[in-house]
DNA sequence: GTCTTGGCTGTCACCGATGACAGCGCTTGC
DNA sequence: GCAAGCGCTGTCATCGGTGACAGCCAAGAC
């Protein structure tokens, strides 16, 4: 910064004021400083500012992985919003137990970011407590967290509408397929199932437990097994509701492999509106992943800028049923 | 830190030494300091250390988006490798021209990270020059950059093997479909086409320009038009080589919509080995995206730790042909 | 007994910004 | 003509660590 000051013929203080956009700098000086800064490719050393201001200009994001459609979409929504606010994006992808222990032990986000966004991350009570006394703003994304601001969708309501759509098409035997819950923390899965069951109940349909299935190894051979089991039931389902689109894609592949025509024999419904859902013609419940990210940043900014970190504020974004080719009336409908 | 020093009855310097694990601290002192630090739940302020050491403990990544399969996979490879090295991950997703101008104007990565990884980002000469005088280590990922370390795959060779596979199956009329090049910087696209053409040439097949097609609006209606055009040629192709898997997925959808059986009438080959390629049974050229990320981090560490930033080192990772159901012999093959 | 050595610890300048405060030149009011 | 006010800019202490250097003390060499 001293270099810039020297080149522009002013003091470091003026350079600082100019680069921070304070109004108490004359236009001519400002122009000179900006020119000098550009010529020297000068960029603020955040460490130094942080030391004085106590703010880092960085926002940390904690997520269970980086490659899933939902998470990468959410990140895509955050990035431009953060950039616009002049905030940098620090990503902590914590996948396995070892990384997890390490993260909560070292708490690298501490004092290293102005806020921490927790995205789709099922915290144990101990972890939650640890984050709570981090003394930094916490924002929860795609999950409801009591006592902290959060942004999410109403999974239960969305699933309810999904199942209702299938019922309205004439389906009476509707299976619900979910990923095998290794962690015990698949809250959205639970909520979606609850919505599904409620829709059945609302329609006066009985709940057949054999139509709710957890599928282990669903990315491998587990899906074929599940399809075989369902299709060989005494009274097989005419519609399958998959917990996520990704799951539904494998389901479609397994059905194709088993020569089960979709939707002629069974309808398939997903959840997410993954990019590929459109390509594959999958009926699904669209979840605004990008918008969730964007909104989370808005919330974060308001928390940081007003330092009302303790304020509890919950935003629920809408989901939307997107009917496509994978759902239709059941084989014997209308007869 | 002063508090800890006071409580432990030592100087700040000793506290610093203790917490950094330097060996020149006696065991008794170390124990006292550690106890004091724990009691006060002291965490060091990285900004302050950075200011002195000049190292930030952060690595910045510049990529054109966050949601594509390739980029999110590459990130997935980087994250654990960085964490293992105790480095934080700073992500700059620069998509539109406005963000782009802003990024290269403000150069936010400068002095705020120990290295910058440029992933699949087509730089203009001016931008490249700008990064070059950033004075920080630069590592290029999924692209070759003269004068800087880089990690990438040999697109040309991979495409050559892909086309050769089709030729070996008996195909003689092979079309190559690429995304419409808005930017003029689709280097991998160019290299893949070159490999394709070389394979044709090697096999003594003539290159029919009408079989190389850029598809505008390939995510919308453009694909159907392209398929229509190809399939109504005097001598239509029996195999289609799509520049990327994502592209191939849309192509498969368009073919299905046009009732063109795959691979009975036309074979389809992709490039990437996107997760969905397996689900959809797409033959493709696997590109080790996660491994590229991991390797990039290894390279980065070596550059940072040995401060041999100027050293040029190029690593080429292997691609692999993954035959699946979308390719087979041409309709009239063997006759 | 003196000198050297090595282990351990303290002192203090410094990293690069920020912000409080002072100062400068000029206009305005009286 | 002088004081007050305003707009703009410079000076300097400061943030929380690090690292160079000096100092102290006990052990061992001569």
How would you describe this structure to a colleague?
The structure is a homodimer of 335-residue chains. Chain A has 335 residues and is of the alpha/beta class. The first copy, chain A, folds into 3 domains: 2-44, lambda repressor-like DNA-binding domains (434 Repressor (Amino-terminal Domain), Orthogonal Bundle), CATH 1.10.260; 54-153 and 289-317, Response regulator (Rossmann fold, 3-Layer(aba) Sandwich), CATH 3.40.50.2300; 155-287, Rossmann fold (3-Layer(aba) Sandwich), CATH 3.40.50. Chain A has 13 helices and 12 strands. Chain A has a 6-stranded parallel beta sheet, with helices on one face. A 4-stranded parallel beta sheet of chain A has the order 7-6-8-9, with helices on both faces. In chain A, helix 5 links the parallel strand 1 and strand 2 (88-93). In chain A, helix 5 crosses helix 13 (289-306). The first copy, chain A, is elongated and about 85 Å long. The termini of chain A are far apart. The mean pLDDT of chain A is 91. Chain B binds a DNA duplex (30 and 30 nucleotides) through residues 1-2, 10-17, 20, 24-26, 29, 44-54, 111. Chains A, B: Residues 1-53 form the HTH lacI-type domain. Chains A, B: InterPro entries: HTH_LacI, LacI/GalR-like_sensor, Lambda_DNA-bd_dom_sf, Peripla_BP_I. Chains A, B: Keywords: DNA-binding, Transcription, Transcription regulation.
């Amino acid at each position: 910064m001293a270099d810039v000051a020297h080149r522009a013929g002013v003091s470091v203080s003026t350079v600082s004021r100019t680069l921070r956009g304070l109004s108490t700098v004359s236009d001519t000086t400002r122009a000179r400083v900006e020119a000098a800064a550009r010529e020297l490719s000068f960029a603020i050393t955040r460490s130094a500012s942080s030391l004085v201001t106590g703010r880092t200009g960085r926002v940390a994001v904690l997520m269970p992985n980086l490659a899933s459609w939902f998470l990468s979409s959410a990140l895509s929504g955050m990035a431009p919003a953060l950039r616009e606010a002049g905030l940098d994006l620090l990503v902590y992808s914590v996948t396995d137990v070892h990384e997890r222990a390490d993260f909560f032990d070292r708490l690298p986000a501490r004092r290293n970011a102005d806020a921490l966004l927790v995205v789709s991350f099922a915290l144990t009570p101990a972890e939650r407590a640890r984050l709570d006394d981090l003394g930094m703003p916490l924002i929860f994304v795609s999950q409801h967290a009591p006592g902290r601001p959060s942004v999410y969708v109403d999974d239960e309501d969305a699933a309810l509408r999904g199942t209702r759509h299938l019922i309205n098409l004439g389906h009476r035997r509707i299976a619900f397929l979910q990923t095998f819950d290794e962690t015990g923390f698949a809250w959205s899965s639970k909520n979606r199932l609850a919505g599904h069951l409620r829709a059945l109940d609302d329609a006066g349909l009985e709940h057949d437990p054999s139509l709710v299935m957890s599928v282990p190894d669903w990315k491998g051979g587990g899906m074929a097994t599940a399809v075989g089991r369902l299709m060989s039931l005494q009274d097989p389902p005419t519609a399958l509701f998959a917990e996520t689109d990704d799951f539904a894609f494998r389901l479609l592949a397994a059905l194709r492999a088993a020569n089960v025509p979709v939707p002629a024999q069974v309808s398939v419904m997903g959840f997410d509106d993954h990019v590929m859902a459109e390509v594959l013609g999958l009926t699904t419940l669209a979840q605004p992943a990008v918008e969730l990210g964007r909104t989370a940043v808005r919330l974060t900014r308001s928390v940081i800028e007003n330092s009302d970190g303790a304020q509890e504020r919950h935003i629920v974004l809408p989901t939307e049923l997107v009917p496509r080719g994978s759902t239709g009336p059941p084989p014997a409908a209308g007869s």
